[in-house]
Design goal:
3-stranded antiparallel sheet; Immunoglobulin-like; 146 residues; 10 strands; 4-stranded mixed sheet
C-alpha cells in the first residue's frame, strides 16, 4: 500500500521535469525571436530628409506619401528624420507633395507612376519644393536640392 503513493509521486516528478524542459525550450525560442525582431525595428530608421520651400508661398498641411510636414513658410526648410523607408523615382520621392496655399485652387493630382522606382532604407536626402501655376490653380513638385 505504501508503493502506490511512490509511483504516483514518481509520475508527478517526471511530469514536472518534462514541463520544465518544455518551458526552457519555449523561453529560449521566445528570447531568440525577440532578439531577431529588435534589429529590424531599429536599424532601418536611418533616413534623413531636408525639404526646402522654393514656391514663394507659405504652405499649409504639406504632406507626401504618409509623411505629414505641416506648415512650411516661404523660403524655409523642414527636417524629417526617423524614417525607415522612402520610395524614390530617380532623384526625388515617388509621391507628389500636397499642400494648401490660401486663395489658390489645387486641382486633382495625377496618380503615382512607379516606373523605375526604388525603395531606399538609408541615406540623407535634400529636395526643393517648387510650384507649377496656371491661372489660379497650382501643383507642387519636387526637384533634387542643388
Amino acid at each position: 500500500m505504501n508503493e502506490i503513493p511512490r509511483v504516483f509521486h514518481r509520475q508527478k516528478l517526471g511530469a514536472r521535469i518534462l514541463n520544465q524542459a518544455i518551458m526552457l525550450k519555449f523561453k529560449f525560442i521566445f528570447q531568440f525571436a525577440i532578439l531577431m525582431l529588435i534589429p529590424s525595428m531599429t536599424i532601418g530608421q536611418s533616413i534623413n530628409i531636408q525639404v526646402f520651400n522654393k514656391t514663394g508661398y507659405d504652405l499649409d498641411s504639406v504632406s507626401f506619401d504618409h509623411f505629414y510636414l505641416g506648415k512650411i513658410s516661404k523660403d524655409s526648410t523642414v527636417f524629417i528624420s526617423g524614417i525607415s523607408e522612402i520610395t524614390m523615382q530617380g532623384d526625388v520621392p515617388l509621391y507628389r507633395p500636397f499642400g494648401i496655399i490660401k486663395e489658390k485652387k489645387r486641382p486633382f493630382n495625377l496618380t503615382k507612376c512607379g516606373t523605375k522606382s526604388k525603395k531606399k532604407k538609408a541615406g540623407s536626402f535634400a529636395f526643393d519644393l517648387f510650384i507649377y501655376e496656371t491661372g489660379n490653380e497650382y501643383r507642387l513638385y519636387w526637384k533634387k536640392h542643388e
